[in-house]
Design a protein that fits this description.
alpha/beta; Carbamate kinase; nine-stranded mixed β-sheet; 8 helices; 11 strands; globular
């Protein structure tokens, strides 16, 4: 079976890796994610991943920690998740490389676009940690940036919800489920898909976005095969 997308970037939140624990890395959930990634990798898809860090630390400001420092702490959290995902991928027989935007030579390789492209062409899964390396940018923006840099066919936003809705379906049973949207709908409809910097960057670079639920087994492969299991934004 031919796949719809040949090269993808998956944005995985820290919360997704925490699973039901809601903090830290849940080994069973991380292994399940790794197995889904391996499934599409074995189908011939080149895969890159951006990890969030919300399961350890979320950027915030306060009297004792300023915003840039908090963001740097969040970057370190994404590196911890990247290390966990890299090892989980290796454990299921999928070669992976963690590259970070901040230099941590003893743990990961520094990010270089050409090297990342080489790894993808060699069949390795590339995991991006450390955000953009600069404060004031979210991992959504990192995902949009890296997707554009590697020429991904689509940016896959792995969520805890199966699609984009007009409102929170858990609170509003009448919320409308969208199967397809335009970039400007994110702004015009005030949809909480990703931050506006990331959405604008995707619009400017023409990077398609697909929102889907990662927790459902086999869903990632369904997306790659072109099945309608989420929301396409283009």
């Amino acid at each position: 079976m031919s796949v719809k997308y040949k090269r993808v970037l998956i944005k995985i939140s820290g919360e997704a890796l925490a699973g039901d624990d809601h903090f830290g890395v849940n080994p069973a959930m991380t292994e399940a994610v790794a197995k889904q990634i391996k499934e599409i990798h074995d189908a011939g898809v080149e895969v890159a991943v951006v990890c969030g860090g919300g399961n350890f630390f979320r950027g915030r400001t306060g009297e004792n920690i300023d915003r840039p420092t908090a963001d740097y702490m969040g970057m370190l959290a994404t590196v911890m998740n990247g290390l966990a995902l890299q090892d989980s991928l290796l454990s299921v027989g999928c070669e992976a490389k963690l590259m970070t935007a901040i230099e941590i030579r003893d743990m990961a390789e520094g990010y270089a676009r050409r090297k990342a492209l080489d790894y993808l062409s060699e069949g390795k899964v590339v995991v991006f940690g450390g955000g953009t390396g600069s404060p004031f940018f979210t991992t959504d923006t990192t995902a949009a940036l890296r997707a554009a840099e590697i020429g991904a066919d689509v940016l896959l936003l792995a969520k805890n919800i199966d699609a984009v809705y007009s409102d929170d379906p858990a609170k509003n049973p009448d919320a409308e489920r969208y199967t397809e949207l335009k970039y400007m709908d994110i702004i015009d409809k005030d949809l909480k898909v990703m931050d506006l910097t990331a959405a604008t960057l995707c619009k400017d670079t023409g990077t398609r976005i697909y929102v889907f639920a990662l927790a459902e087994e086999g869903n990632l492969m369904r997306v790659i095969n072109g099945e309608n299991v989420g929301t396409l934004i283009q």
